[in-house]
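FORM 12-B: Structure-to-Sequence Request
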């Protein structure tokens, strides 16, 4: 037998974290890493936040899980808070981002099919998108690397160039149900939608009675300096998928919708055994207690400005290595002149700085939102040392 007990779908690196301490991870061998990956934009409060730990401990000791056959005071509270904080009128809780997107896709289709138009099933999606790894969510992305071996894909998705409003308009037909788009692509390389593009999609949706579905799984929950990134565009979606940071490390996601958009989501149309269980709701409420505070959101924007200003000065010292600083809030990207994996590994293995590689030659910087000046100083010390010692022979 040569297959590993953990199905070998991830090329796992040699770092083996066993403990977290605020913005640091400690490996099996005792090595301490500065964590600017945060579990891929998940650990908003870092790794040992007393509020989050306390909430989970207390709820675990009280009631963990009962299924959705029963009333949920815990779920009602978190749903009401999300409704109060956002465009949404109603919330379905999931256990992951892909499930949140799945629910969003079903909600968009049901909007039309419940409204008497069974032919409107197709979502227009965008090149280099990432929506998850389930059959529907890989089908929603044009990325061939995620399709290989898994044919046939699910019908009902049409891909157009990210940012090309005219192509999106031209793709609308009698079968179109809506648009599914990340307001800033994460996995695709920290690519922010332009104002005219996103606003144009909103206008096209209004004009043709289509659903604007935003995938804010990575950009949501204060990560970009507002509760959700679309707020910074001055527009609202009909349906939104959120996950990653929302549980602060506890598996949790949600599909948010307006009352109109959710008209097809009636009794018996959707479900989840675990979704929104009391333990997950306790984690979600504890995260919201911290991140929905306007003072905290201001802190994220202030630190973002500080990081971006210094990053822009810094990359000027290494024009052969870096091209551009990207992103919003604490979802930042360093665009390299080469594929970013070698530099990511160099920072990790030689300077104990964890980051995440993405598409479009971009290195993602996704620190916990609770970083402060000390972590920023440590980050620049490690990044500078990493850039200075990086063998430029690795830049093609
Ligand atoms: C991570 C991600 C997903 C999938 O979330 P999972 O929890 O891994 O299923 C979907 N959309 C976007 C934009 C993401 O970044």
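FORM 12-B RESPONSE
SEQUENCE OUT:
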């Amino acid at each position: 037998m040569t297959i590993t007990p953990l199905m070998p779908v991830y090329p796992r690196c040699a770092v083996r974290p066993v403990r977290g301490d605020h913005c640091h991870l400690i490996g099996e061998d005792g090595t301490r890493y500065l964590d600017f990956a945060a579990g891929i934009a998940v650990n908003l409060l870092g790794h040992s936040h007393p509020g989050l730990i306390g909430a989970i401990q207390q709820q675990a000791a009280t009631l963990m899980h009962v299924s959705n056959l029963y009333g949920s005071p815990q779920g009602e509270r978190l749903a009401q808070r999300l409704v109060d904080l956002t465009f949404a009128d109603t919330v379905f809780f999931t256990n992951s981002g892909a499930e949140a997107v799945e629910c969003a896709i079903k909600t968009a289709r049901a909007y039309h099919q419940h409204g008497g138009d069974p032919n409107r099933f197709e979502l227009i999606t965008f090149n280099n998108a990432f929506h998850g790894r389930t059959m529907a969510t890989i089908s929603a992305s044009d990325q061939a690397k995620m399709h290989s071996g898994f044919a046939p894909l699910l019908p009902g998705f049409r891909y157009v160039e990210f940012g090309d409003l005219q192509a999106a308009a031209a793709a609308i037909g009698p079968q179109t149900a809506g648009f599914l788009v990340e307001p800033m692509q994460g996995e695709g390389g920290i690519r922010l939608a332009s104002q005219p593009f996103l606003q144009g999609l909103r206008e096209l949706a209004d004009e043709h009675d289509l659903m604007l579905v935003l995938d804010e799984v990575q950009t949501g929950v204060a990560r970009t300096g507002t509760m959700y990134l679309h707020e910074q565009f001055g527009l609202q979606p009909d349906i939104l998928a959120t996950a990653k940071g929302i549980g602060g490390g506890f598996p949790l996601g949600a599909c948010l919708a307006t009352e109109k958009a959710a008209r097809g989501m009636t009794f018996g149309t959707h479900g989840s055994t675990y979704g929104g269980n009391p333990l997950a709701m306790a984690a979600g409420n504890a995260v919201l207690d911290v991140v929905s505070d306007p003072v905290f959101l201001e802190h994220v924007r202030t630190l973002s400005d500080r990081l971006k200003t210094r990053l822009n000065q810094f990359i000027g010292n290494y024009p052969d290595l870096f091209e551009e600083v990207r992103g919003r809030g604490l979802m930042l990207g360093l665009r390299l002149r080469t594929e970013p994996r070698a530099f990511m590994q160099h920072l990790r293995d030689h300077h104990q700085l964890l980051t995440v590689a993405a598409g479009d030659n971009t290195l993602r910087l996704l620190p916990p939102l609770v970083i402060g000046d000390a972590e920023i100083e440590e980050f620049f010390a490690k990044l500078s040392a990493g850039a200075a010692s990086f063998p430029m022979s690795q830049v093609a």
